[in-house]
Amino acid sequence: MTAKRITHWIDGKPWTGPVARYGEVFDPALGAVSGHVDFASEQDVDAAVAAADTAWRSWRSSTLSRRSRVLFDFRTALLRRREELAAIVTSEHGKVLSDADGEIARGLEVVEFACGIPTLLQGGFSESVSTQIDVTSIRQSVGVCAMITPFNFPAMVPLWFVPIAVACGNAVVLKPSEKDPSASVLLAECWAEAGLPDGVFNVVHGDAVAVNRLLTHPDVRAVSFVGSTPVARHVYETGTSHGKRVQALGGAKNHMVVLSDADLDAAADAAVSAGFGSAGERCMAVSVVVAVDPIGDDLVARITERMGQLRTGDGRRGCDMGPLVTGAHRDKVTAYIDAGVQAGAKLVVDGRGTNVDGSDDGFWLGPTLFDNVPTDASVYTDEIFGPVLSVVRAPSFDQALDLVNASPYGNGTAIFTSDGALARRFQNEVEVGMVGVNVPIPVPAASYSFGGWKASLFGDTHAYGPDGVHFFTRSKVVTSRWPRATTPHAQLDLNFPGNR
Ligand code: NAD
């Protein structure tokens, strides 16, 4: 395989400057290096921020109808290259092609939401709040916005932020994951094709060097981060201490509670789909099933039976589940399985050494199921981010709810039941940002906002939807007085102004 070079996109074109460091990009199903990605120096980041800052100064004054047209044209470009983008995602991430297409579909929904920017940016106006005084509220762009995104959704997560930021009149510097960087370059090409002016959208590749420069650069005004909790915390603390607004979405450990009155076939289908889709490398994956007495044995049997039908292999061959993103990550997840056995959890399905439809060198690990998992075992407490599903038994609804609420994470959760009153209590009392009722992966539609609670989100603004528009704009309120010529002008008055 000839390794390609993946480089930055700055000021409307691929970067041609010198590069001192680079990283390897793998095709996880082949276990082979498919490319080398340039790692940005601080100076490279400065060049991208300078291009963005210059571009922002014109783009912020562009008309809403022009922005809307660019968004529509971006959507057209993306639709035209949809299959190509899905193939790129599969070749660098490993998820199966249909799943890669699914993430593009969810990203497109945010693009479509952003096409409505003329409506989304409508301000407020109050006539005559005081004598001959009117008030207008407007929302204006923020400036250069940095986005730092994870490996597991190389197309969708950038699309959560970029379309709304651009539609709101900002310029963007995206730092995608160095593990699967090519999707972001295709997005840049689509923006160029859509007529977005040079410099409004830039991509710098790399590692902590690039991220830390973005977090401290004086011309970066806002930072959107998605990734693991320790890095999210670092990004939030560093970015805010440098005066930026920051939304930092972190890791997860999502529980799916199954009550005894649930449709157990639907619950088992949901647990397997949400547990093993994308090989468990989703922040909304179900990683814990809480089986409320007495249905535990029955539910585990149904989950096990379904797991036997899954085909693990190369995502280009119509398999159900692909490889893990890197060999190192596969080994880390395997170590969690070893630790789970040692901690006394019952290994019902062992994914180690599973049969695969793919190259011998791929980063494979089959679907794995543990039952009766102790809640102090690392397989329960830690975010594993792989195809490992833990079943925990709970004697009652209340204890199941307490268990979910004791987790330090609060990204997503689900309850499966036919009891509306208990479902309502669950949605009301659970300490989690996104809740599914008989829905295993409750990712909000684009017109709502996505975000967790507790260690799953630092900051107070969720991604996309109304929160996205809020995050990427600054509010301004104008109080104006246009007296008639015949009105006597105001007298000297040193008191605090009151409304009359
Ligand atoms: P990660 O935290 O390792 O990396 C995320 C980004 O931060 C990447 O661009 C990476 O280059 C950069 N980065 C990594 N280490 C850094 C450091 N020390 N300093 C500065 N920057 C650093 O995450 P990942 O492995 O790419 O993605 C998986 C994680 O993302 C999981 O924890 C998952 O739950 C989380 N995630 C969360 C959401 C959400 O919406 N809450 C969505 C998707 C993924």
Beta strands, count: 23
Distance between the termini: 77 Å
Ligands (ions, cofactors included): nicotinamide-adenine-dinucleotide
Q: Helix- and strand-based class?
A: alpha/beta
Radius of gyration: 25 Å
Beta-strand residue fraction: 15-25%
Low-confidence stretches: none
Order of strands in the sheet with most strands: 15-16-17-14-13-19-20
Features:
500 residues; alpha/beta; 7-stranded mixed β-sheet; 6-stranded mixed β-sheet; globular; binds nicotinamide-adenine-dinucleotide
List the helices and strands and how they pair.
Elements (H helix, E strand, L loop, with lengths): L3 E3 L2 E2 L2 E2 L6 E7 L4 E8 L2 H18 L4 H17 L1 H12 L3 H18 L2 H4 L3 E7 L2 E9 L2 E5 L7 H12 L3 E5 L6 H12 L7 E3 L4 H9 L3 E7 L2 H13 L3 E5 L4 E5 L5 H13 L9 E7 L3 H12 L19 H16 L3 E4 L18 E4 L6 H4 L6 E7 L2 H10 L2 E2 L1 E5 L3 H10 L4 E4 L15 E2 L2 E2 L6 H7 L1 E9 L19
Bound molecules: nicotinamide-adenine-dinucleotide.
Nicotinamide-adenine-dinucleotide binds next to helix 8 and helix 9.
What report would you give on this structure?
The protein is of the alpha/beta class and 500 residues long. The protein contains 16 helices and 23 strands. The chain has a seven-stranded mixed β-sheet with strand order 15-16-17-14-13-19-20, sandwiched between helices. α10 packs across α11. The radius of gyration is 25 Å and the shape is globular. Bound molecules: nicotinamide-adenine-dinucleotide. Nicotinamide-adenine-dinucleotide binds next to α8 and α9.
